[in-house]
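pipeline: protein-struct stage 2 | run 1193 | RND family efflux transporter MFP subunit
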Amino acid sequence: MMCRFRPSRILAALSIALVPLPLAAADPAPAPEGGVRALIEARQHAVLSSEIAGRIGRMTVEAGQSFKAGQTLVAFDCSHYQAAVDAARANLRAADVTVRQSRRLEQLKSIGGAEVEMAEVKAEAARADLRKAEIEVRRCDVKAPFDGKVVEQRIREHESVPAGTALLEVLSDRDLRVELIVPSSWLVWLKAGQRFELRIDETGETLDGEVTLIGARVDPVSQSLKVTGKLQADKQGNAPNLVAGMSGTARFNAPQEAKGAR
């Protein structure tokens, strides 16, 4: 037997189903008792590239090795560029000779001032060419911009590379920072100077840290933001023995009002 429903009853049922339910009040974010994940990063981190095209003549470091600021890390075979310097220096000497001769001839009324001025202009151009060639020679040696270590060696000796080729990835292992991603709701109490404890996953060591910078933008999807901190030296004044890329868990002591909010 087929059952028939009246249209009025169907509309009544739909109207009941579509009545909006009252929204529950949003609870405050829980206190940060579980901690947040943290990553150890190097403040100074760079990929060194070639400024000239040429053949790699010598490499003084490999991945994992330490270096000092100003140390030559990669040396190009610069015979071609050095020859350009020698040629530019010879052209400058010839231009200077022409200037001296022109000045003598001017004193003898053999030539006019315009000829002397042209000789001087050519000498200045030769001097500029010499400076340019010397700059190219200095670019043959890639020097370390800071004290640090080699992360990755991207080329080998005797390879020929064009200008702009990545040669070495380097970082400073003496100036490390902590990067954390925290809930945006912590902004009501999290400030620069806030202390935290960081437990390093790789070593199990617990270190004291301090917030130095709070991110300028909240991620609208995850409702989180980036926080940067620094680690304190131990009681003996020794810096933490860390390596960039280590990770851990940071725990903060939130104010009592934040802990009590639920």
